[in-house]
Amino acid sequence: MSVTVSWKAAGYALVSPSEMAKADRLAVEGGVPSADLMEAAGRAVADLAAETMSARRASGPIVVLAGPGNNGGDGFVSARYLREWGFDCAVMTLGDQASMKGDAALMRDRFDGPVIEAAPDALADAAMIIDALFGAGLNKPLEGMAAELVDAANESRAIRIAVDLPSGLCGATGQVRGSCFRADATVTFFAPKPGHILAPGRFLCGGQDHLHVADIGIKDAILAKTGANTYLNDPGLWGLDYPHAGPTSHKYVRGHLLVLGGREPALGACRLASIAALRVGGGLVTLAAPSETYPIQAGALTDVLVRRIDSNFGFLGILADPRIAVTLLGPGAGIGEKTAELAIRALESGRNVVLDADALSSFAGRLDALAVQNKADVVLTPHEGEFARLFGDLDPNEDRLGAARKAAKRVGGIVVLKGVSTVIAAPDGRAAINANAPAWLSVGGTGDVLSGMIAGLMVQGMPAFEAACAAVWLHGEAAMGIGPGMIASDLLDAIPSVLP
Fold it and tell me: What is the pLDDT of residue 1?
């Protein structure tokens, strides 16, 4: 009976609310009646509601909160099916039913069950509450009776299901607009929205395992016509580009990476990055260590080549080796002009470059210098503090996806904006949102491991965007396998178990 499917089965593209509106319009122009789309959407909601009531052995009244627009129309359809299947279901309307238009009004008229006026107190005894108030169309904070209904629903002990998006959640950014319905599960249509994946939206939708995508009759071919270029980060996105060692591979085929060594007290950062690059398949890693730390690094590293440098000229001398394909600068390198100069010179050499940590902070207030010198692929891996120092006018707390995209275009390279919802953005507009990183990744040194993994995949010839996406996902999977109590060095031994 169910027409809902796992969201991954629907593909890895994410559509913004405006792109979804375009998909609806193109489907109608292609001959699918808009009323049929609404009918299928409401049926999908009813399917999940019925299955959930059965799985939880729940009984009692179901209340559908119906708004004045198309989301409310979906709600009326779901209520009609639930009553046909024997459930005690009523619709609680927000606003004047007479204001409903088009398909929503049609579905209202087809419903012959009880319709009650908005009353927050009436939700206290509900076994299930279905939120069909606003969905993706909302562009302002909830207020008045809408906010009161949502707050009452959240305070109830009922099972909560959201139609399309929890009311109060922005589908484009995942940010909350005032009050927000906290769903145990969410049914969306055609494809997920960025707001389903970006925190805090991901948690308000019920989590990834409780996000369902319904096939409502929009053909897959329409996706390409929407202009969507945002994706869930998953092996399905980058797996075809992943570098696998062949039977005739040797260390130089698998690539030679140069890492700038760190200084006290952050000597371990560059070691973590260097070993991580080898763990993902890099053929050779050379660590260029300042003279004062060379004995420590040479004694600590058995799988990494350690070269002594006394100045920037020494580093550039090593960089002159034509076999070096990628340079990683930043972990423990120190903030200042010398680090920025090395980054610029590395880019001028035509080598692909990964910039992390201190290298990023060294370009605070002078990002134009980096962008101008960018003659190769560059990947920046800022956490939110470093992002603010580099791109002070962009606020990821307002629009994380949009901020990362603008930053990537500005610098002309890949930006990996790290956090609960890591976003990987390319200057051509592509972006991927990661959703598999556990909370215990938030300890010192894990970012150094990530930068090494990105560089280690790039050095094998993986394109920069795909390499960044793959490294971020593998980083999260490795951490998931370790569990709470993890420290950064634990990731190094865990990486091989998650490689494709």
Answer: 35
Read off the pLDDT of residues 234-289 as tens digits, 9 standing for 90 and up: 999 999 999 998 888 888 889 999 999 988 888 999 999 999 999 999 999 999 99
Neighbour order of strands in the sheet with 431-433: 13-14, 230-232, 431-433, 423-425, 414-417, 378-380, 352-355, 324-329, 256-260, 284-290, 305-309
Residue 228 Cα distances to 32, 116, 139, 241, 431, angstroms: 21, 39, 20, 21, 10
Collect contacts of 219-223 with beta carbons under 8 A, ≥24 apart.
219/27, 219/30, 220/11, 222/23, 222/26, 222/27, 222/30, 223/11, 223/13, 223/15, 223/23, 223/190, 223/191
**Residue 412's pLDDT is what?**
92
The least confident of 7-16, 140-149, 379-388, 476-485 is 7-16
- Residue 230: strand, helix, or coil: strand
Percent of the chain with pLDDT over 70: 97
pLDDT in tens, 156-196: 999 999 999 999 999 999 999 789 999 999 999 999 999 99
How far from each other are the two terminal CA atoms of the chain, in whole angstroms?
35
**Cβ distance 67 to 95 under 8 Å?**
yes
Q: Which two tokens stand for residue 16?
A: 């913004």
Six token digits for residue 203: 């948690």
Task: Determine which helix (DSSP H) or strand (DSSP E) holds 303, and give its type and residue range.
Answer: none
> Would you state the torsion angle of the CA atoms of residues 198, 199, 200, 201, taken in this order, to the nearest 10 degrees?
20
Distance (Å, whole) CA 243 – CA 120 = 56
Question: How confident is the model over 299-329, as pLDDT tens digits?
Answer: 999 999 999 998 889 999 999 999 999 999 9
Query: Could you give the C-alpha distances from 93 to 68, 100, 115, 133, 225, in angstroms and in order?
Result: 8, 11, 7, 8, 35
Give the sheet arrangement for strand 62-66, strand by strand. Answer: 4-6, 211-214, 185-189, 159-163, 128-132, 62-66, 89-93, 115-117
Q: At what angle do helices 34-55 and 17-29 cross, to 10 degrees?
A: 120
Distance between CA 343 and CA 330 in Å, rounded? 9
Tell me the C-alpha distance between 85 and 63, whole Å.
Answer: 15
SS3 category, 259:
strand
Q: Label residue 210 left, alpha or beta by phi (over 0 means left) and psi (-120 to 50 means alpha).
A: alpha
Residue 288: beta bridge partners?
Answer: 260, 307
**Could you count the other beta carbons within 10 Å of the beta carbon of residue 229?**
15
> Are 411 and 391 spatial neighbours (Cβ–Cβ below 8 Å)?
no
The Cα–Cα gap between 264 and 271 comes to 13
